[in-house]
């Protein structure tokens, strides 16, 4: 129907105060938006969630609201009755409650109303942005006015870590995605090929994915940001895959590896001293092949005690403030190869031992059969006379 005829018809309708039945029927959208909103994979619409449109006559054969992704308006679409809920003059307003409708795929989800005058009539689609009797549905994000939702993939968790803190315990940490979705974690033997979780399938702790040597076990599925996995075996290595989870739909996985700690084999070397002052000095060295190292200091003679496997020590660069280890103090504990120790006495010789180690907590392994040692005397404190 030409635009001029449509306008004339509306004027006649307005003047007469009554709309008569036509075939094809006239419809107009009420719920609009391109997009209406943006959601994430697995999201559900609220309860209730009404999608509404208007019919330009008092009676008709059938009215429906459909939602789907295929642009043909049929394949994979969900169509259901749109029921009357209010009058707008002689027009009738209808709606379908899409409560808890779940978005099971990413991309564009079109949603539109339609009505027909009689059982044998063609459907008229409310996809024109205003009153229309057009019987062709156009699903497009770039032409016409069919409303739609945009559905994005779930963002992954981030900053994931996995480390043995005891001989049979791995401490896991992570950050949730910006939307705060729950996180599911699957444990595999290191090097195994992971199986992608199946969207729409719910997994609980203890569920398995894959088979044989590539079988993984769900160890966590909840809302936190850390977890201790005690289902591991001492001496084994593991890969952990972290997934954002949303109503049994999943992001891609992010991996963290927990290698069982082994004793380092190479000690630190090339110890040097610089910026030597009455109360402080800087130590530098070439690190060995441990992930971390501790430095033990003692005044006037060499420390006689070293670290023990499975023990943790607090380092403090202020001499005497760190963990007392035998007759010395731990003045450094970390991964660097330089630090400055303070709190020293003038004209005093300080002796240092540096031990490489791997692991944390009771799973810590120290290299004690060889270590780096050295000593340095602080400078004399100068006196000033006036």
What does this structure look like?
The longest helix has 14 residues, at 3-16. The chain is mainly beta. Strands 2, 4, 5, 8, 9 and 10 form a six-stranded mixed β-sheet that branches. The protein starts with a helix and ends in a 9-residue tail after the last strand. It is built from one helix and 28 strands.
Largest sheet: 6 strands, mixed
Instruction: Tell me the span between the first and last alpha carbons.
Output: 107 Å
Say what oligomer this is: single chain
- Could you give the order of the helices and strands? HEEEEEEEEEEEEEEEEEEEEEEEEEEEE
What is the SS-derived class? mainly beta
Query: How much helix, percentage-wise, in residues?
Result: under 10%
* Helix segment tally: 1
Low-confidence stretches: 1-20
- Portion of residues in beta strands equals 35-45%
Number of strands: 28
**How confident overall, as mean pLDDT?**
94
Gross morphology = elongated
Rg measurement, Å: 36 Å
Brief synopsis:
By secondary structure, this protein is mainly β. It has one helix and 28 strands. The radius of gyration is 36 Å and the shape is elongated.
Q: How are the secondary structure elements laid out?
A:
Blueprint: H1 3-16, E1 27-29, E2 38-40, E3 50-55, E4 62-68, E5 78-81, E6 83-88, E7 91-97, E8 107-116, E9 124-125, E10 148-152, E11 158-166, E12 169-175, E13 182-189, E14 208-209, E15 216-222, E16 226-229, E17 238-246, E18 249-250, E19 254-258, E20 269-274, E21 281-286, E22 292-299, E23 324-325, E24 328-334, E25 338-341, E26 349-358, E27 365-366, E28 372-377
Parallel strand pairs: 2-10
Antiparallel strand pairs: 1-3, 3-7, 4-5, 4-8, 6-7, 8-9, 8-10, 11-12, 12-16, 13-15, 13-17, 14-15, 17-18, 17-19, 20-21, 21-25, 22-24, 22-26, 23-24, 26-27, 26-28
